[in-house]
């Protein structure tokens, strides 16, 4: 079996990226799904840092962006999800972060530690966890901006935001993408 993945790391768990790893309490190796030796023991070849770019079903072959080819008799596509990128003015400014992978968490952790204030856009689970992490890192001035009228409305439609009481929504009305604008604030 060959495991083709475009990230350079051994397969790792993402939950820590918005919690222990972000806060510095969990080391990178502790995120690993399996011991490094497991793959060799099970005769699994790891092709890491390799993006699958071409799939030839007739020839039963996957080719990566760098040109490596892997033949298969069976194949599983498990390419997961991506962060939902904001298409609003200012979204590409320095200081705007997304969170999906380890590198994102490294950058975000450093930015949170150096930040004067923090705005979280998206008050679902990850947004709520990031607000909590930001608070733990000593950034009391954070605000959450969301499309729904309250935090965690999508995953917990029937419950209140009591356990996230220190998250304040910015403005009284829920925001939609077109209503958002990100501006660089002079330091
Ligand atoms: C910060 C964070 C915290 C989370 N916390 C929790 C939690 O507490 N509890 C919980 O239940 N869930 C949590 N989740 C969600 C959970 O991590 C996801 O549900 C899970 O990662 C989905 O696993 P997956 O294997 O389907 O996809 P992914 O983990 O996204 O893995 C897919 C992999 O495929 C790679 N890939 C994509 N395209 C290609 C390509 N063309 N070629 C090669 N490789 C490719 C991607 O880079 C990625 O490494 C969290 C997610 C994040 C981002």
Number of helices: 4
Overall radius of gyration = 20 Å
Largest sheet: 3 strands, antiparallel
CATH topology descriptor of the largest domain:
FAD/NAD(P)-binding domain
Helix content: 10-25%
Low-confidence stretches: 160-172
With strands numbered from the N-terminus, the spatial order across the biggest sheet is: 3-4-5
**Overall number of structural domains:** 2
Structural class: alpha/beta
**Full CATH superfamily name of the largest domain:** FAD/NAD(P)-binding domain
Q: Residue-averaged pLDDT, rounded?
A: 85
**What is the terminal separation in angstroms?**
52 Å
CATH hierarchy, class of the largest domain: Alpha Beta
Question: What's the layout of helices and strands?
Answer:
Elements: E1 2-5, H1 20-23, H2 36-41, E2 45-48, E3 52-56, E4 61-64, E5 69-71, H3 102-114, E6 118-121, H4 125-136, E7 142-145, E8 168-169
Parallel strand pairs: 1-2, 6-7, 7-8
Antiparallel strand pairs: 3-4, 4-5
The structure holds flavin-adenine dinucleotide.
Tell me about this structure:
The chain is built from four helices and eight strands, in the order E-H-H-E-E-E-E-H-E-H-E-E. The chain is globular and about 55 Å long. Mean pLDDT is about 85; it is low at about 160-170. It folds into two domains: about 1-70, FAD/NAD(P)-binding domain; about 100-180, FAD/NAD(P)-binding domain (3-Layer(bba) Sandwich). Strands 3-4-5 form a three-stranded antiparallel sheet, with no helix packed on it. It has a three-stranded parallel sheet with strand order 6-7-8, with helices on one face. The longest helix has 13 residues, at about 100-115. The chain has helices at about 20-25, 35-40, 100-115, 125-135, and strands spanning about 1-5, 45-50, 50-55, 60-65, 70, 120, 140-145, 170. The protein has about 190 residues and is α/β, with parallel strands linked by helices. It binds flavin-adenine dinucleotide (FAD). Flavin-adenine dinucleotide binds next to strand 1.
């Amino acid at each position: 079996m060959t495991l083709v993945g475009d990230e350079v790391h051994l397969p790792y768990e993402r939950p820590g990226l918005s919690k222990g790893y972000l806060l510095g309490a969990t080391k990178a190796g502790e995120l690993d799904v399996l011991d490094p030796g497991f793959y060799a023991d099970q005769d699994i070849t790891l092709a890491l840092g390799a993006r699958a770019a071409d799939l030839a079903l007739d020839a039963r072959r996957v080719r990566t962006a760098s040109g490596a080819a892997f033949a298969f008799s069976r194949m599983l596509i498990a390419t997961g999800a991506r962060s939902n990128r904001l298409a609003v003015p200012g979204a590409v400014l320095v200081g705007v972060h997304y969170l999906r992978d380890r590198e994102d968490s490294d950058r975000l952790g450093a930015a949170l530690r150096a930040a004067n204030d923090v705005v979280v856009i998206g008050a679902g689970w990850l947004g709520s966890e990031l607000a909590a992490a930001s608070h733990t890192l000593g950034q009391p001035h954070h605000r959450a901006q969301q499309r729904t009228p309250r935090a965690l409305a999508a995953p917990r439609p029937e419950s209140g935001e009591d356990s996230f009481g220190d998250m304040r929504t910015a403005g009284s009305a829920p925001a939609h993408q077109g209503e958002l604008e990100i501006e660089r604030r002079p330091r």
